[in-house]
Each structure stands twice: as structure tokens, then as C-alpha cells.
Amino acid sequence: MIRRLRRSFVTVTMLSAAxxxxxxxxxxxxxxxxxxxxxxxxxxxxxVENGGRxxxxxGRGGEHGRSITAETPYETRFYxxxxxxxxxxxxxxxxxxxxxxxxxxxxxAQALYASGRDAGRTGIYRFAVIEYDGGDTQYxxxxxxRSIMAARAFLVNSMxxxxxxxxxxxxxxxxxxxxxxxxxxxxxxxQKSFITNAGHELKTPLAVIESSAEVVELEHxxxxxxxxxxxxxxxxxxxxxxxxxxxxxxxxAARLTLEELDLSALAAETLExxxxxxxxxxxxxxxxxxxxxRVRADRAAAExxxxxxxxxxxxxxxxxxxxxxxxxxxxxxxxxxxxxxxxGLSQGRQERxxxxxxxxDDSRGGAPGYGLGLPLARSLAESMGGRMYAESPDGRRLVxxxxxx
Length: 405
Fold this sequence. Notes:
Blueprint: H1 2-49, H2 72-75, E1 78-83, E2 89-93, H3 102-115, E3 119-122, E4 125-131, E5 137-143, H4 145-180, H5 182-220, H6 224-251, E6 259-262, H7 263-280, E7 285-289, E8 294-297, H8 299-316, E9 323-330, E10 333-341, E11 348-349, H9 373-383, E12 387-392, E13 397-403
Parallel strand pairs: 7-9
Antiparallel strand pairs: 1-2, 1-5, 3-4, 4-5, 6-8, 9-10, 10-13, 11-12, 12-13
Helix pairs in contact: 1-4, 5-6, 6-9, 7-8, 8-9
């Protein structure tokens, strides 16, 4: 229990922090990338405005924008290509860039001219077009490689910082998880202690009441009052045993002996009396048990799980419905599944059935029970490395499944 609470605390903390950091880093990186694109576009627009070059006085004092400074002409790599109306090269200026040859510059410009594109990106170069009155077209290409590399470096560094922060947070959350869940653990421990102690204390008065009723019957004969006393003391004793069993499961005090057992034979033997009970109610009871299916489990715990599933199926199947039990192997695991129609269902998972003392409203006046059977069965299944869940595929049928480890 304590371990689950600590794991839940750490998981929730890490997921929350990861979500915040991912969103924050995403916003920061997008902002950084947008600023770099804006800066490149501003420089390219300035080059277009000045005929594909930096004027001798361009950029001094930042009067042409925040991206244009006195150093910009010396930091910027670009080239231009002028084409006539037929798309032939008049001249190509590659003096400001060394990564591309004149032939490559001319080929790129002519390909863009043929495609009709007048702005955008080609590789790491952002380009724009200057149209002249005589029909000539000048392409201005700005090298954005440094901006792209800087944006990528910023992204990688931010991811490293985020991962490192999450790793540090994980160890901090793990160290503080015990203190964070301590109030819950203390309250839960007190609750379990109370249930266990109350269960033991109730055994003696219940035994005395039962014995007293038997003495009254010996002296005055059996009556409806003594029969009611026997019935209610048995129900209260059963409730006490289930409460104590659940408390022991929570404390980890219940010792299970795992052994190889024939689950098929155990299921057939355990389900037989419930098949007769179902027949007495006029309910068809069908079993499809794969023979010779062996699992490693505690025999008493496995029998208890099957008993709880069968007891619930017989109790809460609607009149005229049919009960079906299947035992098969799925993905290398033994799977026992019960299926029966029931009232008060909603389509989907029925997790509330595993809440302690939960009983559907339509069953409160009907079959006896305290809503502890399925929670106990799930605890037993999980203690053996298995899983148990309930679902209703159509809102009419209840399917309870247990997967043995």
C-alpha cells in the first residue's frame, strides 16, 4: 500500500512537471525559431529594398530595424542572380558566399524562374525576387544556415536541460514521497488496525450469542426468533471474516503459498455447486473450461476467487438470463471469465464494483452481501501477480475477468 502511494505520488509529480516543462520548452523554442525567421526576413527585405546589396551606410545606428546593425553587412552571407525575360543569366554575384559556386547559383535561379516561385526557401537559403521595369528578374538568396543551426542547437540544449531537470526532480520527488504520503498512510494504518482489532473482538460476542441461541432452543425449542439469531450471527461472522481478510491483504500479512495446480480441475470442482444453485433458479449455467490448464497460484486463494465470481453471478443474474464461465489461455496466461446479464449496468469498465461496500441500488434489497467479495478477489489476484477487472460491452451483460500470473 505504502509503495503504491509513493509510486503514485512520484508518477503524478513527474507527469505534471513533464507536461509543464514540455509546454514551456515548446513555447520557448517556437518563439526563438520565430524570432530567427523574422530576423532573416528582415535582412532579406533590406537587401531587396537596396537592389540585392548592402549600401555603404546601411545599418548604422540600427535605423533600419533591430536586425540591421553596422556589423550586419560583414556577418551576412548572400548571393544574387539576374535573369533576363527569357530566363537567361545576365550575371551572378557570389562574392559574399563561399559555399556555392557560380554555376550552382545560376542553375538554382533558373529552376526557380521556371517554377514561377518568387519567395520561399530552397535548402538553407531564403530567397526573394526583384522585378525590374525592363522585364529582368533578380533573385536574392540569403544564407540562413547559421540561424537554422542555432535554432537546432537551442532545441537540443533545451531538451538536455529539460531531461536533466526531470531526472533531478525524480530523485527529489522519490526522496520526499514518504513524507508527502505519511498522513494518508497513518490514517490508513489506523483504519486497518481498527478493522483487524474489531474483527477479533467481535468473534467472542458472536460465539456467545450463537451459543446462547442454541441453549434457548434446547430449553424452549426452535422458533423464528432463534432462527433469525442464527442467520444474522452467521452473516455478521462472514462480514467480520471478510473485513479481517481484506485488512490482512492490505497489510501484506496474508501468506500465500504459490504452487503448480490444475486450474481446470479446481474451477470445475468449485463451480459445480453453483451450477446446481443456478438450476434451482431456472438459470442456465454453462462452463467451457480448457482441460489441463495449469498455473502457479495459491490453491485457497484461487478457489476463493472462483467462488466469489460464481456467487456474484448466481446472485445478480436477471431472471431468464444465462451464466457462462470460460477458462482459456490468452497471451500465455490463464484467463477465467464469467458472463451474465445484470441490471444497473453502464457500457464500459465497471471499476466501481471493486470499491469496498459498493452495491448497486437494484441489489440492496435483494441477495445478501456487503460489497466486499470482488475487492477481496481482486486483492487475491493481484497478490499472485494477476489482474482482475469487470466490464459491460453492451450495458446489459456483465463480464468479470481474472488473469492469473
